[in-house]
């Protein structure tokens, strides 16, 4: 925060490990609005996730530093707030009592009305928010759940001074766009749809994906530019942003810095499929997938071959081995490839591991994973078999030391004893940093995982 006099500039905070900027998705306030301590003022999208940014002090919005679609660097001004008593604090006489403010009419309600806490009280107490998107007393809740609860608690809205000639967007008491998911906003932006003009079909008027798609189908889309930007250069130019930009930078860095090698092996997946069927028949309410089982085998393998659960500290010429396993797994989302991380995965049971994989995958696709759940991995598993391919030499997720890849399971001829039979076969690959171990250890790890796939009972010796 910086600023002179009563106007204070709120600088974009550090939103997570390794993040240097964020793209403004939408403003939740407008110039002239009154905000309370820890009230979200903007929703931004980082390379990791879409999050709401709360303002740490109360007052009247003096300036917005950027428009939706603009990128703001960490440490750069995001919003300026006039904290003078005549702005925010003077309009509250006691908690819960609202007096119309003497400021230019915008039709926006004073933030905090009916919530039992005045802006003046908030300014005296100061901000307690320590995580992006969460206020002092709310804890780690989902953004949409918090938004719905806060609306229900506000009660009747009170406006400052109504301006009959004000446009509808300014006459609303709540300037937040009633959209369920950041992905819905992105879809609307891609098609040039103004979500504030849509009547949401969800609860409390929330705009859902089907509402945007209906608007597109109804022809409420600007005519496409006949000459896309960059077409004169022989091709369309598409900016790398968000998750795609981060993935591009990380993969390029991995190729530059890590001397990787790849080993692979085919395995008879009959035992793996039998194990999955047995587990799911025993408890259908908590299904276990192929990825969860192979991840479990990898976790067991890392006990025997800990060098693969490590990273190289080039500055000190040291190998850093971890006693814990923060398991990353590649997930394809509408925003691009991301790698959610399950912290302490080594301590989870197989069913807990499966449940966490499903939860994190769903939230990654919705764009609601917090930045902390997308950083800090120590080992990664990539199931590219879901794309219908047999094998791939995956790129290591820098700065980790290894990544296991799983191809599709397909029936092939397989030698069983002295006979040829048809068996479901899967190809497993391991890309590893040759600085952390040699081929013997890498091959031993992958062979152990393959043996567990073929004969899952082997894993019992490591449980």
Automatic annotation (TrEMBL):
<dbReference type="GO" id="GO:0016746">
    <property type="term" value="F:acyltransferase activity"/>
</dbReference>
<keyword id="KW-0808">Transferase</keyword>
<keyword id="KW-0450">Lipoyl</keyword>
<feature type="domain" description="Peripheral subunit-binding (PSBD)">
    <location>
        <begin position="179"/>
        <end position="216"/>
    </location>
</feature>
<dbReference type="InterPro" id="IPR011053">
    <property type="entry name" value="Single_hybrid_motif"/>
</dbReference>
<feature type="domain" description="Lipoyl-binding">
    <location>
        <begin position="7"/>
        <end position="82"/>
    </location>
</feature>
<feature type="region of interest" description="Disordered">
    <location>
        <begin position="102"/>
        <end position="177"/>
    </location>
</feature>
<dbReference type="Pfam" id="PF00364">
    <property type="entry name" value="Biotin_lipoyl"/>
</dbReference>
<comment type="similarity">
    <text>Belongs to the 2-oxoacid dehydrogenase family.</text>
</comment>
<dbReference type="InterPro" id="IPR004167">
    <property type="entry name" value="PSBD"/>
</dbReference>
<dbReference type="InterPro" id="IPR023213">
    <property type="entry name" value="CAT-like_dom_sf"/>
</dbReference>
<feature type="compositionally biased region" description="Low complexity">
    <location>
        <begin position="153"/>
        <end position="172"/>
    </location>
</feature>
<dbReference type="InterPro" id="IPR003016">
    <property type="entry name" value="2-oxoA_DH_lipoyl-BS"/>
</dbReference>
<dbReference type="InterPro" id="IPR050743">
    <property type="entry name" value="2-oxoacid_DH_E2_comp"/>
</dbReference>
<dbReference type="InterPro" id="IPR001078">
    <property type="entry name" value="2-oxoacid_DH_actylTfrase"/>
</dbReference>
<protein>
    <recommendedName>
        <fullName>Dihydrolipoamide acetyltransferase component of pyruvate dehydrogenase complex</fullName>
        <ecNumber>2.3.1.-</ecNumber>
    </recommendedName>
</protein>
<dbReference type="Pfam" id="PF00198">
    <property type="entry name" value="2-oxoacid_dh"/>
</dbReference>
<dbReference type="Pfam" id="PF02817">
    <property type="entry name" value="E3_binding"/>
</dbReference>
<dbReference type="InterPro" id="IPR000089">
    <property type="entry name" value="Biotin_lipoyl"/>
</dbReference>
<dbReference type="InterPro" id="IPR036625">
    <property type="entry name" value="E3-bd_dom_sf"/>
</dbReference>
<keyword id="KW-0012">Acyltransferase</keyword>
């Amino acid at each position: 925060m910086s600023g002179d006099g009563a106007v204070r500039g709120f600088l974009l905070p550090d939103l997570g490990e390794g993040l240097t900027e964020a793209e403004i998705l939408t403003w939740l306030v407008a110039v002239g609005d009154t905000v309370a301590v820890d009230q979200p003022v903007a929703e931004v999208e980082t390379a990791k996730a879409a999050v709401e940014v709360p303002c740490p002090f109360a007052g009247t919005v003096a300036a917005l530093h950027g428009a939706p679609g603009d990128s703001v660097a960490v440490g750069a001004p995001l919003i300026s707030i006039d904290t003078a008593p005549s702005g925010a604090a003077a309009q509250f006489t006691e908690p819960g009592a609202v007096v119309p403010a003497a400021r230019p009419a915008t039709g926006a309600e004073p933030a905090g009305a009916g919530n039992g806490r005045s802006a003046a009280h908030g300014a005296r107490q100061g901000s307690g928010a320590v995580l992006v998107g969460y206020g002092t007393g709310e804890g780690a809740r989902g953004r949409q759940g918090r938004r719905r609860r806060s609306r229900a608690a506000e009660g009747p809205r009170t406006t400052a001074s109504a301006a009959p000639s004000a446009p509808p967007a300014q006459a609303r008491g709540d300037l937040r766009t009633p959209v369920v998911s950041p992905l819905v906003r992105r879809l609307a932006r891609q098609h040039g749809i103004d979500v504030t003009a849509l009547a949401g079909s969800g609860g409390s008027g929330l705009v859902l994906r089907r509402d945007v798609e209906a608007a597109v189908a109804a022809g409420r889309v600007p005519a496409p530019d006949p000459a896309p930007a960059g077409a004169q250069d022989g091709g369309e130019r598409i900016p790398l942003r968000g998750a795609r930009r981060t993935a591009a930078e990380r993969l390029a860095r991995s190729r530059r810095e890590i001397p990787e090698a790849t080993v692979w092996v085919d395995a008879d997946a009959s035992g793996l499929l039998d194990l999955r069927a047995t587990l799911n028949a025993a408890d259908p309410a908590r299904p276990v997938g192929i990825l969860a089982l192979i991840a479990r085998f990898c976790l067991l393998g890392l006990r025997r071959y800990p060098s693969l659960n490590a990273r190289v500290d080039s500055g000190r010429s040291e190998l850093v081995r971890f006693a814990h396993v923060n398991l990353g797994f590649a997930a394809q989302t509408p925003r691009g490839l991301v790698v959610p991380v399950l912290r302490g995965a080594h301590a989870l049971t197989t069913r807990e591991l499966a449940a966490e994989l499903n939860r994190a995958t769903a939230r990654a696709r919705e764009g609601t994973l917090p930045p902390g759940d997308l950083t800090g991995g120590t080992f990664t598993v990539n199931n590219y078999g879901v794309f219908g391919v047999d094998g791939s030499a995956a790129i290591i997720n820098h700065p980790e030391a290894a990544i296991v890849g799983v191809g599709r399971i397909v029936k092939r001829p397989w030698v069983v004893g002295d006979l040829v039979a048809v068996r479901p076969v899967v190809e497993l690959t391991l890309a590893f940093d040759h600085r952390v171990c040699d081929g013997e250890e890498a091959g031993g790890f992958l062979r152990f995982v393959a043996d567990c796939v073929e004969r899952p009972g082997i894993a019992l010796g490591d449980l």
